[in-house]
Design goal:
Blueprint lengths: L1 E7 L5 H15 L3 E7 L10 H13 L6 E11 L2 H14 L4 E4 L8 H4 L4 E4 L7 H22 L2 E5 L4 E5 L5 E5 L2
Parallel strand pairs: 1-2, 1-4, 3-4, 3-5
Antiparallel strand pairs: 6-7, 7-8
Length: 179
């Protein structure tokens, strides 16, 4: 599975950046993963919000090709962690291109970008800073991968015993005799 997370601008807060790095490393142990920080519109007055969104959208779209695109928006659909794990599992098994999560800057995402995405996700009805939402997203991606990996059936050969085991959960193996 190839996963990408994109957002405009670099993370500035040292504590947030530390958590970002920790989750990025954890995710990389489980899947092919890239974190892409694109061009942030700087030095433009907030009154010119269309220009800001246009610049940031341009930077994000450069990295999106055939990706399955999931954008974060407070107007998106709320799902629980289990549903997110199931969605990632289905995409991993059936979609050959990256699954890309896109988070906006302080103004969110442009309607142009939101209109071309495959899924619009809301992480909460509450409002969070755009830097904190980055950590919440990374944590949920990590949690989804762990849920999927822990509950993923695995076929294990048991050397010299003539048995195989399908492990559904680490604590509860189910065994059967090999023919």
């Amino acid at each position: 599975m190839k996963l990408e997370v994109l957002w405009p601008g670099k993370t500035r807060g040292a504590e947030i950046k530390s958590l970002q790095l920790a989750y990025t490393e954890k995710i990389k142990r489980l899947a092919k993963f890239r974190l892409i920080e694109t061009k942030e519109a700087r030095g433009i007055d907030e009154m010119n919000h269309r220009k800001i969104l246009e610049i940031e959208t341009e930077g994000l779209e450069k990295h999106l090709d055939r990706d399955y695109i999931i954008c974060l928006s407070n107007e998106g659909k709320e799902i629980d962690s289990g549903q997110m794990a199931e969605m990632l599992k289905k995409k991993a098994l059936n979609y050959p291109y990256p699954v890309s999560f896109v988070a906006g800057g302080f103004l969110g995402l442009s309607s142009k970008l939101l209109n071309r995405v495959d899924f619009v996700l809301s992480l909460s009805k509450m409002t969070f800073s755009h830097e904190l939402i980055r950590i919440i997203l990374l944590e949920q991606i990590y949690r989804s991968l762990m849920t999927w990996i822990i509950h993923k059936p695995r076929l294990l050969q048991m050397r010299g015993t003539g048995c195989e085991a399908v492990v559904l959960h680490r604590e509860y193996p189910v065994t059967k005799q090999m023919p």
